[in-house]
Design goal:
The structure holds 2 protein chains of 2 kinds. Chain A is an alpha+beta fold. Chain A contains 14 helices and 14 strands. Chain A folds into 2 domains: 181 residues, no CATH class; 196 residues, no CATH class. The longest helix of chain A has 44 residues. The radius of gyration of chain A is 30 Å and the shape is elongated. Chain A starts with a helix and ends with a helix. Chain B is of the alpha/beta class. Helix content of chain B is 28%, strand content 26%. Chain B contains 6 helices and 10 strands. In chain B, helix 5 packs parallel to helix 6. The longest helix of chain B is centred in the last third of the chain and has 18 residues. Classes of the chains: A alpha+beta, B alpha/beta. The interface between A and B is medium-sized, with 24 and 30 residues.
């Protein structure tokens, strides 16, 4: 019967093709959105895995860029038992880089492909308390400079001087007049001050490679932040396993403060992405519904046209269940083919998209996700065929024969 | 073999009730070549399809090989049609996307086709002169050839009864002659009971059983074709 059902689909190639496209596009959408979601998880996971300490920011602030804390909080945290190092930081979106304001950088980046390409990809200033940061064991930027960068990192000699360390990405986005990326020894103009580039780093994460690192006092001037404030405080425990306990102590001692270990941030992000996935699934369900309606329509047209054929089959001894199985099998084949087509398109799409996406984000299409796509499509196709199959099975053979004899 | 006992059939056509059969009783012996003749709308095809358990009598009963068709469940009727009855239609009713062999094997498709059944289909197609067209699709066959495929399809299950509804109705007279030659030859070979509905009396021979129906009544037939119990109690399953 499987061969017969298959041939029935091939008999109406145009209609079958249209139904295939109708269901494969929502499947492509499902897989595309989930591959993006998985890519974001991987990217954030990779980024957070590079950061081992505890980040202290103002309660409910989404990131250090939007946080302010009293500068003297660093001293209180330093007094907590088990704390090894405390490094205050000042964070903010760079007000003006090479004459480009934030809006200009976004729009100009999209149009000219120079500068950051979106509002989420903005150049950020991070001012570091250089002696305190020199004590850190898990600092991301010095490590990435040593491993993949060039030049040197900030040291005591850079305190109060307009020296900066930038990523290779920023060096490319704000090139020299001849179009080549900026290098060590070049200057970068931020908020009407020329800063000398002393080092280039590369973390490979689009979340980290947007940071311009400088001395904390220089950053305060550029961001117009008063001396008695900092944005965040990076804390390292004597023992990395003690991070969660230190977070709890800080939050208990200092109301209005969030102390997050990276494990906690990762868990929060996982929860957020779970909610995003649910929202995506709800959105894509509408597209899936349209695809299923397409299958129902195709199969209903097919069964209506084949009224006499089903009557003949019933007359030749086929039961209602046999007819129901035949039509359901046909729609299941449609679902299976749509799933395979949707997966093939999604795979090609992610391979192509990954050629153009930079900054550590890779669309991730796992075998499990592909299997989910095929399975979902198979279920949708089968469900879409049930009503037409029931219609075909309940027809009365005598009526079909009378119709066929006219 | 077949006992038709006071069969009545009525159905609704719009708001009015149509009496298609008005108390038909007859008997057909095993291995007979029987014709049901009569004008259009007389009830011939209705009776034929009731013999095949495609439709149920409103009243009365049909007994084939000792089994009451009226008392059969739907599942038993499916089995009866699949295993004991072969149908030949006026319009051939072959499936367009299947080859001649696969069309012959249609009754077996839901349960899977055995090698023995496939061989039997090939043998039958060869016997009806289509040995060189086994893989042809219906659109590659003439009307006469399509009807020969339909004959093979009716016989492949080795039925006790073959029912043919105007089997030459869409064929020219020469092809019609060929079809009847094949039908008579196959009936001789397989000793099957054959009941044919037709308008065309040219193909009737003196040895055949002829039942003539008009306005739902059996108006002519040999005395031995009349059923022994013309007015039995209505069967409980009769609608």
């Amino acid at each position: 019967m499987g061969k017969f059902a298959w041939r029935n689909l091939l008999t109406r190639p145009l209609r079958t093709t249209l139904a295939l496209i109708g269901l494969s596009i929502p499947i492509l959408g499902v897989l595309g959105l989930f591959s993006l979601s998985n890519g974001l998880r991987d990217m954030v996971g990779d980024t957070l895995s590079q950061i081992e300490g505890v980040m202290v920011i103002r309660e409910n602030a989404p990131s250090p860029v939007f946080s302010t804390l009293p500068a003297d909080l660093a001293g209180k945290i330093r007094a907590i038992p088990g704390v090894r190092a405390v490094a205050p930081e000042v964070w903010g979106i760079a007000p003006n880089v090479e004459g480009q304001g934030m809006l200009m950088r976004s729009v100009g980046g999209l149009v000219s492909k120079k500068g950051p390409a979106s509002l989420l990809d903005q150049t950020v200033i991070s001012g570091q308390d250089i002696p305190a940061h020199a004590n850190l064991k898990s600092a991301v930027f010095p490590r990435s400079l040593r491993e993949k960068g060039e030049g040197r990192f900030l040291d005591e000699g850079d305190r109060g001087k307009p020296n900066i360390v930038i990523s290779r990405k920023i060096a490319r986005e704000f090139p020299r007049p001849d179009g080549s990326p900026r290098g060590v020894g070049d200057t970068l103009r931020i908020a009407d001050v020329d800063y000398t580039i002393i080092g280039l780093y590369e973390t490979g994460s689009m979340l980290l490679d947007v940071v311009v690192l400088m001395d904390i006092d220089s950053a305060r001037k550029a961001l117009k932040m008063p001396d008695e404030l900092v944005s965040s405080i990076y804390v390292e425990a004597e023992n990395p396993n003690g991070n969660d306990a230190i977070s709890a102590t800080i939050e208990a001692d200092e109301p209005g403060v969030d102390a997050r270990s990276m494990n906690e941030v990762q868990a929060d992000f996982g929860t957020l992405m779970g909610q995003v996935d649910t929202f995506l699934m709800m959105t894509v369900s509408l597209a899936l519904l349209v695809g299923v309606v397409g299958i129902v329509n195709t199969m209903l047209m097919s069964t209506t046209e084949r009224f006499i054929e089903f009557g003949v089959l019933r007359t030749l001894g086929w039961s209602r269940t046999n007819v129901l199985s035949l039509v359901t099998l046909e729609s299941a084949y449609l679902g299976l083919l749509s799933g395979l087509l949707g997966c093939a398109l999604a795979w090609l799409g992610t391979v192509a998209a990954n050629q153009f996406i930079e900054g550590g984000l890779r669309l991730a299409l796992s075998p499990q996700l592909l299997a989910f796509g095929v399975g979902l499509s198979l279920v949708m196709g089968t469900l879409g065929g049930l009503y037409p199959a029931w219609q075909a099975a309940r027809m009365v053979p005598m009526e079909a024969i009378r119709l066929g004899s006219r | 073999m077949i006992d038709v006992v006071n069969v009545r059939k009525s159905y609704k056509s719009g708001t009015r009730s149509v009496e298609a059969l008005r108390g038909i009783s007859c008997h057909i012996e095993r291995g007979r070549f029987a014709f049901i003749v009569g004008p259009s709308g007389s009830g011939k095809s209705t009776l034929l399809y009731m013999l095949g358990a495609v439709d149920r009598p409103t009243q009365g009963d049909i007994i084939v090989d000792g089994e009451s068709l009226g008392a059969m469940s739907e599942s038993a009727q499916n089995d009866y049609r699949r295993e004991k009855v072969g149908f030949i239609f006026q319009s051939f009713n072959l499936i367009s996307n299947l080859s001649a062999v696969d069309n012959v094997l249609i009754p077996f498709l839901p349960r899977g086709v055995t090698a023995e059944q496939r061989q039997r289909a090939v043998t039958l197609l060869t016997q009806v002169g289509l040995g060189d067209r086994l893989d042809h699709r219906p659109h590659q066959l003439s009307g006469g050839e399509q009807q020969r495929v339909a004959i093979a399809r009716a016989l492949v299950k080795q039925p006790v009864l073959v029912l043919a509804d105007e089997p030459t109705g869409e064929l020219d007279s020469k092809t019609g002659d060929e079809i009847y030659k094949i039908l008579r030859s196959m009936q001789q070979t397989y000793k099957t009971t054959l009941v044919v509905v037709t308008h065309d009396r040219r193909f009737i021979t003196p040895r055949d059983l002829v039942l003539e129906i008009q306005d739902g009544h059996l108006i002519a037939g040999p005395t031995d074709a009349l059923a022994p119990h013309p007015h039995p109690e209505p069967h409980p399953s009769g609608r």
